[in-house]
Design brief:
669 residues, mainly beta, 5-stranded mixed beta sheet, 4-stranded antiparallel beta sheet, 51 strands, 43% strand, U3 small nucleolar RNA-associated protein
């Protein structure tokens, strides 16, 4: 087998600016780690499945789409009743029912950055759910109180601003007194009555939440003639405050007396990030000096007694080559992970309880194949790369032909002589409202489709080979009347795609929409020479809840939507809120289509008859063992769907008999 190594692809991932685990109250059903990157993208990793990348929220150039300079992400998951709830629900049964509804609801994800907006994201459609202005310019830090009811931000104009997030709201509440300098970090005190902030003037301030006034100040030593920058801060449960500054020091403050209790020169440069474990007995730090340091609490008066406790530097490791900008820790089982990330774009994961004596695991910064960052037009020998809002197309090179008898004698990994170098034919800079979510190129290279979080774009591509010499190029024309007006039924709103793919003959474009509708679009040429694009069928089988089915049935005016069986409509509203279409595969003969979502549900469709073929039984847990890849096995007389899971399991499904193949029954368990 010949393998073409595409070394010419210039994919450049963005730096990691923020890492946040979902709250412990939600992590059982929603075990997400949010990874905020500098270009505005937010990756959601499944921490209970060996850190598997599940979905990517696109960044954007506009204010309402995350901007291109994300600085902070935060989770919220309210599980306690507010004072208004206690007045509204009188009976204990009503209160318990309300609490259970809160606990079952998915967590909420917020982001903020230099675009001066606070955004709540929809975890299912991957689009902004709510957007509010920061009212103070760029946002440098963000934190949610322990009751999960108030979101606080620190802004460029030197104010702390509070936003009410009770009962799924996001509304501006009020601001604190101004300090006329940038607020770089913040943390809520354990009782939620106060906030501590670190700023660009080298001062740590304690704020009264009820009045918005500063109660006390703590100032670190100056960095030469300039004030030190307080980059990171923590508030532990015993009133200890921990700060990291631009001198490379981690300082422990007595929160009752506002004086230094201990300080450590842990780094040779700025300490950019701090995090503590849930018990507050270990503090991890890193920064411009990329070593990761852990400080442990040692009690002077017996085990588990904090009176008179001291901190010691217990060890360090160097996992990164450049600045570390974010650290997150989750010590709950089975996660038990310390995660770091920064300028080198890679995420490093190691067991938290064994740090620094356990080697790290580097997570790939290159997205998985199901994200369709790379596409191949096999018939035209073209290679397409998607990056941010840009598409590049190359013509693949060629190797010198080698006789079969010599090939049989060649060793694995032998390099073949190249007689034709790859050539870049096209670069498209698209006008989009966000980074591209997905893209696809047809097998003959005639069509290119791409989608941001607003709309799908389709381009007609023609090869111009009349250039002098051996050079050729591609001319591109955007299809103006695409997508068809009836792409989605009238009851749905979002007309963008999470997955795109052309059938091998280029006659159909498969679209999975943000609201989990599978759409088959026919591409044909009229006698006049004009192209026609027709919605042939819509499949609603991934929209498997009773109210969704009823809504789709009521609004199926054109009769193009195929509905799932009533017996299959068992999804509840909470799981529906985080459901995303993330896998798509077409068989080599173009007959079969398979789609998968983030709940590990697969459906197979017959593209010849445009009917639903089968629902694949859920063979593994979507939380503990989500699928990572899906494809059809290339065999002329068999239709086999193969998919892999995070736990390194491989399943083979026979499409014709609608069951696992004999091989899979024997080896997959």
């Amino acid at each position: 087998m010949e393998v073409h190594r595409c070394r010419f692809a210039d994919y450049v991932p963005s730096a990691i600016n923020s890492l946040q685990f979902a709250p412990a109250t939600a992590s059982t059903k929603y075990p997400y780690l949010a990874v905020g990157r500098a270009n505005g993208e937010i990756e959601l990793w499944n921490s209970r499945a060996g850190f598997t990348l599940e979905k990517v929220i696109p960044g954007g150039s506009g204010k309402n789409n995350g901007g291109t300079n994300l600085e902070a992400v935060a989770w919220a998951h309210q599980v306690h009743l507010t004072a208004d709830d206690l007045e509204l629900f009188d009976e204990p049964e009503e209160r318990e029912e309300r609490v259970q509804r809160l606990r079952k609801a998915p967590p909420r994800l917020f982001s903020a950055g230099l675009n001066a907006a606070v955004i709540e994201w929809d975890l299912g459609t991957l689009s902004p759910k709510k957007v509010v202005d920061s009212y103070g310019g760029s946002v440098w830090c963000m934190a949610v109180n322990h009751a999960q009811t108030i979101l606080a931000i620190g802004t460029e104009d030197g104010r702390v601003r509070l936003f009410d997030i009770v009962d799924n709201s996001l509304s501006y509440a009020r601001s604190f007194d101004s300090i006329n300098t940038r607020i770089l970090c913040m943390a809520w005190l354990p009782d939620d009555d106060g906030i501590v902030t670190g700023s660009a003037d080298g001062t740590i301030r304690r704020w009264d939440v009820s009045t918005g006034h500063c109660l006390s100040r703590m100032t670190v030593e100056r960095d030469g003639s300039d004030p030190s920058l307080i980059w990171s801060i923590l508030a532990l449960s015993d009133s200890t405050i921990v700060s990291g500054d631009s001198r490379g020091y981690v300082t422990f403050w007595d929160g009752r007396m506002d004086v230094i209790s201990q300080k450590f020169n842990t780094h040779g440069a700025d300490v950019l990030c701090l995090v503590a474990d849930k018990a507050g007995n270990a503090v991890y730090c890193s920064g411009v000096d990329p070593k990761v340091v852990v400080l442990h609490r040692q009690s002077a008066r017996g085990k588990n007694r904090r009176s008179g406790s001291k901190w010691v530097m217990a060890g360090f490791r160097r996992y990164h080559t450049n600045d570390v900008r974010a650290i997150a820790v989750d010590t709950t089982r089975p996660v038990d992970a310390l995660v770091t990330g920064g300028v080198d774009t890679q995420m490093a994961v190691c067991p938290a309880d064994k740090f620094p004596n356990q080697p790290q695991r580097r997570m790939p910064c290159f997205p998985p194949m199901r994200c369709r960052v790379m596409s191949v037009a096999s018939g035209a020998r073209l290679f397409m790369q998607q990056h941010r809002n840009q598409l590049k197309v190359w013509r693949l090179g060629a190797a010198q032909p080698i006789p079969q008898d010599r090939r049989d004698q060649m060793e694995t990994g032998h390099s073949m002589p190249v007689i034709k170098e790859p050539q870049m034919l096209l670069q498209m800079d698209l006008k989009t409202s966000s980074t591209l979510i997905c893209s696809a190129i047809s097998s003959d290279g005639t069509w290119i489709a791409a989608s941001d979080n607003t709309q799908i774009k389709l381009f007609y591509v023609r090869t111009e080979d009349d250039m002098p010499g051996d050079q050729d190029f591609l001319s591109v024309k955007k299809v103006q009347d695409f997508p068809p007006a009836n792409l989605i039924p009238v009851n749905l709103e979002l007309k963008y795609a999470t997955q795109l793919a052309f059938t091998p003959d280029g006659g159909k474009l498969i679209v999975t929409t943000a609201e989990c509708m599978v759409v088959v679009i026919g591409i044909s040429r009229l006698e006049s020479g004009e192209w026609e694009f027709t919605v042939l069928r819509r499949f609603a089988h991934h929209r498997a809840s009773e109210d969704e089915r009823d809504d789709d049935h009521e609004n199926n005016h054109d009769g193009l939507t195929v509905l799932p069986e009533v017996s299959h409509c068992t999804q509840d509203a909470n799981m529906r809120a985080v459901r995303t279409m993330n896998s798509l595969a077409i068989s080599p003969d173009g007959r079969w289509l398979a789609t998968g979502d983030s709940l590990n549900r697969f459906h197979v469709f017959d593209l010849a008859s445009l009917q639903h073929q089968a629902a694949v039984p859920q063979l593994s847990s979507a939380i503990a063992n989500p699928h990572t890849a899906v494809t059809f096995r290339c065999h002329p007389h068999e239709s086999r769907l193969v998919f892999a899971t995070a736990n390194k399991e491989i399943y083979e499904w026979d499409v014709e008999i609608k069951d696992l193949s004999s091989w899979s029954k024997h080896y997959s368990h």
